[in-house]
Amino acid sequence: MIESNLAGPIGRPLDRVDGRLKVTGRATYAFEYASQGSAAYGVIVPAAIGKGRILGLDASDAQRAPGVLLVLTKDNAPPQSPWGPVDLPDRFARAEPALNTDEVPYFGFPVAFVVADTFEQASAAAALVGVRYAPQPGDYDLHAAGPHAENPGRINGGIPADSAVGDFESAFAGAPVKIDAIYTTPYQSQAPMEPHATMAVWEDEILTVHTAAQLTTSPQEGLARTFNIPKENVRVITRYVGGGFGSKLPYYVDATLAAIGARMLRRPVKVAMTRPQLFHLTTHRTASEQRVRLGADRDGRLIAYGQDALVQCARFDIYTEPVCGAARMLYAAPNRLTRHRRANLDLPRSDSMRAPGDAIGLLALECAIDELADALGLDPVELRLRNDTQTEPEHKLPFSSRHLADALREGAARFGWDKRVAKPASVRDGRWLVGLGVASAIRADTLQSATARARLENDGRLTVELAMTDIGTGTYTILTQIAAEAMEMPVDRVTVLMGDTNYPPTDGSGGSFGAATAGAAVLAACRKLNAGLAAGMTEAEGSVTPAELSASYAHAGFGAHFAEAAVHRDTGEVRVRRMLGVFAAGRILNPKTARSQMIGGMTWGIGSALIEENYVDSRYGSFINQDLASYHVAVNADVGAMDVVFLNEADPHGGPLGSKGIGELGICGAGAAVMNAIHNATGARIRDFPATPDKLLAALETLDG
Predict the structure, then answer these.
(1) pTM for the model
(2) Does residue 664 carry a catalytic annotation?
(3) Looking at 120, 321, 664, 701, which residue is catalytic?
């Protein structure tokens, strides 16, 4: 277990400094702003076809409806820049025009926008808009598109889509023990509690946008690009965000339409997507088809290590889910091959969802490792230990710190792994079959760019300002602790102000880099200010860049998941009775918020293993599950006893704070541990995720009653 750093605020389990505001309803979210007079309400009218053209649109009934102020269509929408550019280095700063085309590229695409005095009036009028379409056949089937999928060449951040070390094919062919298996994962939606929403207002030529976003400078640049105005004329405010999980990295047409409506009506306009609209108008996690090939000698040392992934992308986009990223770093093997193939379909955009790539890549990879352990007759923990490495296998860089083996051993001891019965379907509790499973966790650690400003007020209080966001992870609290320690003052004398592009810029929240990056900037600003106090300094700025993470090392956080699952013999119902996650994630800045992040990730892993999925209606190109009644996520009743342990880990070659990202590490491998426990309980290998009762019942029929 970690020990709190009693010398200062960093490392203490401080309660959230914004907690009281949130539980008393005084934390203002995007849709709750209504500055400069009463706001009007906008409602988006979505397309009812998956692909085609708009032949005509009748807005006359909507325009005559009570309270209606504006019906916006392609015919009266102002000029805007076209979508993109598709190859913009910051894809979240692309232009996002609205109602600028007759084309319908995917189901739910906006075709009109109605603004009225009340939300109810706008909703009623939106239902009166009549649209005539010329539907066209669309490509909606990922599997069918597989043979024609393209090699994207490069994926996120310019990383090669394919990687190869040694001679994989020959090594795999000659391996004494091998696994060659296909795994499929479904479409998933982030489904944050707070819907995507915006309130926009203009003051002369200055646009202020209150929006639900994980980033600040990217939507600022994107809106400026959309309207062809200077970036300095756009202010983005996002002080509190009710969950994002990657879906609020891009900004969307709610911001564009609110801004257009506000300018045309000369009053604030607010827009909130409905829950069904979120499933089409925002991004999702792609489905995937993965082939994992593992070859080992009879002692369990990997000889050949390969993973291929087929993923979906919108027809007009180039995003490729980095499914094989974990496979490139996790285990040693002299012969390696990873490949990504992208199918552009007539579906909405896929993009980042919590632990993009690794979350689904490890579902397949860690289940395949378990299958290899079975084939070898070797304990699954021991197999992972035998293939551990202190050197990144592809680029031959030493890890800045890597304690995967310690996490596996500590977890095995705490969980009672020695009591596991290796033979599947051996442990019964009445009509329940009980098993244990394990999986490794890895998530690459990065540092981005940020600047913070620290100011000592006349009353001796400290104010810290930066255009960072808190998406519910506890960033306000962690930055308060960092500032207080650097300035050697109590935390209750520190106020952190964030979520406003009027503050110094940051790269925002995403990719598990937020706390380390923003925290390093705050640390630099406060150290500079503290050093200058004797000379009368009262304000200072500090910055951090990716260059401060040593390029001589590979950087990642690690962990081990252990799960106990019970499967009902008659119904196929699965209950996760207990889970343990042991993590090596550098310096833990706040054990309380860190534990919450890990529990959230592990819970998400349960959902990925058992219930979370979406389907495409091949007739319309629409996602079938469009609300939280039909799109199932794990809830309290799905979660048994859950424990989190952080190892004491120093990372002397990491970022300035010595911390690592933890927002996504908890989900990585968690679902695989549950799936491996199901196999140990029943003998069934479910390779088409999630493991729903119908799939398990077919396997259970082979067991004796």
Answers:
(1) 0.97
(2) yes
(3) 664
